[in-house]
Amino acid sequence: ARSSLKVLVTGAAGQIGYAIVPMIARGVMLGPDQPVILHLLDIEPAAEALNGVKMELIDAAFPLLKGVIATTDPIEACMGVNIAVMVGGFPRKEGMERKDVMSKNVSIYKAQASALEKHAAEDCKVGKPLNSPVLVIANPANTNALILKEFAPSIPEKNITCLTRLDHNRALGQISESLDVQVSDVKNVIIWGNHSSTQYPDVNHATVQTSSGEKPVRELVSDDKWLNAEFITTVQQRGAAIIKARKLSSALSAASAACDHIRDWVLGTPEGTWVSMGVYSDGSYGIQPGLVYSFPVTCKKGKWSIVQGLKIDEFSRAKMDTTAKELVEEKSLAYSCLN
Ligand code: NAI
């Protein structure tokens, strides 16, 4: 029998936490043959609710679930984990300045970086045998990931990513709805940059599988105006639209996207398909190194690599630079909060 993988979920008593833990326990994240032990972390005010989540996990009698640790101690939570899904964060409340939210969150990620660095499984720290994923979901996701990376220097930078797969999936969904095709037939959209409203959803390389072969989205959608304006803003503003409708932010779609992110990273992307992941920039596409920026990536044997050589037109260039600029500003704001 395979040995269990220990999966950390922080903020596990929250909305996304509640949606993602049953997915992980059912094998959606790591496959139907991979047993898991869940390490759930939240903070003291949520301790009772967290215990309730643990009770429900026991009651669900998931065959793959070999254990649950529910704790408010970051050290106990990080102990020996192979995969870390960082959902815990401080939400923006009415009247709060951006800087206040930033300050709360980067302090959390700085502290948790140390706990992970000291206590995660060796493979998480040296990148063996899997690339031992760390996925940051909590906002500001790119900048939290950057802080985590910088304050956990012994964890390889390749192991630390942030979630933009939800935006990627939203873009697939919009194309599928607009062309009335199956979402599984649409691929290779790209989310560039920040998980924020400056992100650039790019369809210039996206295709649809049709009965007469693979066709570029640009060829199938005759309305350029829609692709260049409304499509982009719909994807950028989708999070706000969900909050308006549900009075709560996206949770099931975020949890599902997080499972897609880790699954593709660990098990590999299908041949000819790329996905979007927030990763540490190596300077590809002229994006300043030292930012966590969303790129198109393919994954194989637990390692991601940025898709190279895509043609970038002027329209795209400007949008890719705008979102990079915002990340530079966030980075300096984050550091000014920590000092
Ligand atoms: P939520 O407020 O329901 O849950 C957050 C949980 O984190 C709470 O239970 C809270 O007690 C806990 N928490 C706070 N500080 C913590 C700490 N220091 N350690 C451990 N846990 C802590 O929020 P929800 O809806 O689950 O969203 C979580 C985060 O994910 C938010 O920051 C949200 O903005 C972000 N998000 C990101 C998306 C993405 O695509 N990257 C998509 C949707 C949400």
Instruction: Please report the number of helical segments.
Output: 12
Distance linking N and C termini: 49 Å
Principal-axis shape: globular
Gyration radius (Cα, Å) is 19 Å
Q: What class do helices, strands and sheet pairing give? A: alpha/beta
The major β-sheet equals: 6 strands, parallel
Strand content: 15-25%
Order of helices and strands: EHEHEHEHHEHEHEEEEEHHHHEEEH
Mean pLDDT: 94
Strand runs, count: 14
Reading side by side through the largest sheet, how are the strands ordered?
3-2-1-4-5-6
Q: Flag low-confidence runs.
A: none
Bound molecules: 1,4-dihydronicotinamide adenine dinucleotide
How helix-rich are the residues, as a percent range? 40-55%
Layout of helices and strands, plus pairs?
Blueprint: E1 5-10, H1 15-25, E2 36-41, H2 47-59, E3 65-71, H3 74-78, E4 83-86, H4 98-119, H5 122-126, E5 134-136, H6 141-150, E6 160-162, H7 165-179, E7 186-187, E8 190-192, E9 200-202, E10 207-210, E11 213-216, H8 217-220, H9 224-236, H10 238-246, H11 252-267, E12 275-280, E13 292-300, E14 303-306, H12 314-338
Parallel strand pairs: 1-2, 1-4, 2-3, 4-5, 5-6
Antiparallel strand pairs: 7-10, 8-9, 10-11, 12-13, 13-14
Bound molecules: 1,4-dihydronicotinamide adenine dinucleotide.
1,4-dihydronicotinamide adenine dinucleotide binds next to helix 1.
